[in-house]
Amino acid sequence: TAAQNDDAVAPLAEAEEAVPAGKVIFEDSKNYNSMGNGAYPGYSNSFTVPKGGANASASLTVDDWGTLEITGSGGSLKISLTSAEEAAGPLGGHKTWSDSDSQFLAEGTYTVSVTHQNISMSNPNTNASICSFSISVVAVGYTPPQPDSSSSSSSSAPPPPPVPGDSSSSSSPVNGSSSS
Predict the structure, then answer these.
(1) 10 Å Cβ neighbour count for 132?
(2) How far apart (Å, rounded) are the C-alpha atoms in residues 29 and 114?
């Protein structure tokens, strides 16, 4: 029995499910493109990465400034298109620019946020306001451990004692005498 076998796999309290490699866990994209002094209102969402982890990839395109962040207990990814990354132009903004990144995320819960800032201009008809992003999170894959089928329940139990009078079980003399 499993209680007698130190090598036995303990039964799972809850059955674990396999997660196939390539399974899309989370995916989203938005494309805000407008003329004027307004900005994309922002975005937030959440998702859970199962056992085995996942690969996250993201891209962000903005005019003027923006960030995309994925944060959680098992990793993070950040794309920052801000004045801290590159200086503002003569009007205080930035032309359309893009960046992308990818990161492994371990099992856990994650939040996604996208921010966008667009400068105000005296002539809003010449002010592009752009915020486009895409996010894809794909499972690496996980297979729950299976009990070792090559081991039996008595594999760690001592061998049974020899049966008296059975010459095949022992070559030593029985009751102190040898048979000839």
Answers:
(1) 20
(2) 11
pTM score of the predicted model: 0.71
DSSP annotation string for 80-108: EESTTTS---TTS----EEEEEEEEE-SE
| Dist. CA 128–CA 125, nearest whole Å | 8
Q: State the sign of the Cα–Cα–Cα–Cα dihedral 154, 157, 163, 168.
A: positive
| Cβ atoms 137, 24 nearer than 8 A | yes
User: Which residue carries 């920052």 as its tokens?
Assistant: 80
Q: Among 143, 123, 129, 154, which residue's Cα sits nearest to residue 65?
A: 129
The type of residue at 82 is T
Q: Nearest 5 degrees, angle CA 119-CA 121-CA 127?
A: 80
Whole-angstrom Cα distance, residue 110 to residue 56?
11
- 114 - beta bridge partners? 43, 68
Which residues are 29's β-sheet partners?
134
Weakly modelled stretches of the chain, pLDDT under 70: 1-15, 149-180
Helix (H) or strand (E) holding 63: strand 54-63
pLDDT of 2 reads 45
Q: Read off the amino acid at residue 74.
A: G
Question: What does the pLDDT look like over 81-134, one tens digit per residue?
Answer: 998 998 888 888 899 999 999 999 999 999 999 999 999 999 999 999 999 999
